[in-house]
Specification:
By secondary structure, the chain is mainly alpha-helical. It contains 7 helices and no strands.
Length: 181
Amino acid sequence: SSLSSNLLDGAWSPQLAQMMMDRAMQAVVLLVMPAVTLVITQGMSISEGSEFIFVSDALNVLKEDWGSWVVRYTLWNGMFFGLFYFKYKAFPTQIRWLAYFNLGVYVLTLWSGFTMIAPDAYMGSWRQYSHWVMSGVCFILFAVETPAIWWPETSVAVIYTSIALAYIACYLLVEVFDKVP
């Protein structure tokens, strides 16, 4: 509201410019980077023959050329560090540890799915199972953090948790039981 009242009053200041820049950067970090990263990397995975459109398929494919891998991992790691920085700045000091925890979960989820070297040894390995566990931790983190910090409403908690559990169930059906829901 202070932004709109300052603009309507014709007042312009370095502080107002900084506030507008901060909001633009927040939009880039929270909306644009994740959307662009997901669309580009999911498209890359589909072009590599991925059968599904799970986020995990956008994170990693069994084998791709190293140039594509660099693009994929640069986009995902850049997005993760952008989200970390935003959360680190947004969270009060008492819960800044949560920004670090988020970054750790994101990076471990991505890198536990790394299959560029010895992709045949990945399936059924501890790395595949740790990727699944970290994916579950990521969804649980989102299901708790979103309604607890960003949108504190019971209905949001119920809906978000239901969606997260349904996604995990569908993913496990495909990965463990080889059944498409």
